[in-house]
Amino acid sequence: MTPVVLTRLRSPEARQTKSDILIANYMERNLAEVPFETAKSIAERVGVSQMTVGRFLRRLGYSGLEDLKQDLREGSARTAWDVRGGFDRLKEDAREGRLLAQLIQQQVDNLSRMYDITTAPEWQQAIEAIVAAEEVYVAAYQNVRGVAQYFAAQLSYARPRVQFVDGLNGTYAELLDGSVDNRLLILADVRRFASKAQPLARAAREAGVKVVLISDDACTFADECADIPIIMPGARGPLWDGAVTMVAVFDLLVANLIVALGDSVNARVDRLTALQDRFGDFED
């Protein structure tokens, strides 16, 4: 499946010390999980230092873990929805209740990491950027598009001038034309990454637009494409990528923003409620 990585992990260069053997064996046994690991998490699981993991990767010819992840991506065409060859086992697990229990536990584990995300410096930077921006644009693609549209709609209740951009005009002119100085792009993209995401982020930054990137821990371009990266746990499920963690990130951003904006949110909600009543979109 990933012959280049496996060949390197099984080579003599990868097994020169006891620590090397521990790291190589761990990676080989958990190859499907490596794209979602960090050097720190591997070090903690194996019981070595992060520096030892870095030296091991360099001995294999990688400048860092991201280089190894790139080999894994190029060596496998697996998408987030690929369950080929495993249905018999999955059906048995589902009948016995193990499958849903595993999925629930994975979601709980991911959500348990939300505290670390929301207390990181990037989180407060994102809140301050959303508060300060004159215009906020939200973009996403493929299977996270709907979640991002939901977020844009919720965000528009808390502050004005929020717009979801889909790029169907072929230009993203509404975002990039420079009509106002203080613009913010909130871009959501997770593996399997959309081809338009990186070009849009780069074009936005070139146009003076600040970029908040919501992505997962398989992302290798956050530092070069985003001013403020917010990185979530990546999908590890046996079936497909779920949206639970991303929805949690978006909901908490809105909740935190409401607190940051204070009483101005009440006035905006009252105004929107009056408009909803006028046009009759909701039942009494």
UniProtKB/TrEMBL annotation:
InterPro entries: Homeodomain-like_sf (IPR009057), HTH_RpiR (IPR000281), RpiR-like (IPR047640), SIS_dom_sf (IPR046348), WH-like_DNA-bd_sf (IPR036388). Pfam families: HTH_6 (PF01418). It comes from the Bacteria. Signal peptide: none annotated. GO terms for molecular function: carbohydrate derivative binding; DNA binding; DNA-binding transcription factor activity. SUPFAM superfamilies: Homeodomain-like, SIS domain. GO terms for biological process: carbohydrate derivative metabolic process. This is MurR/RpiR family transcriptional regulator. It comes from Pannonibacter tanglangensis. The lineage of its organism: Bacteria, Pseudomonadati, Pseudomonadota, Alphaproteobacteria, Hyphomicrobiales.
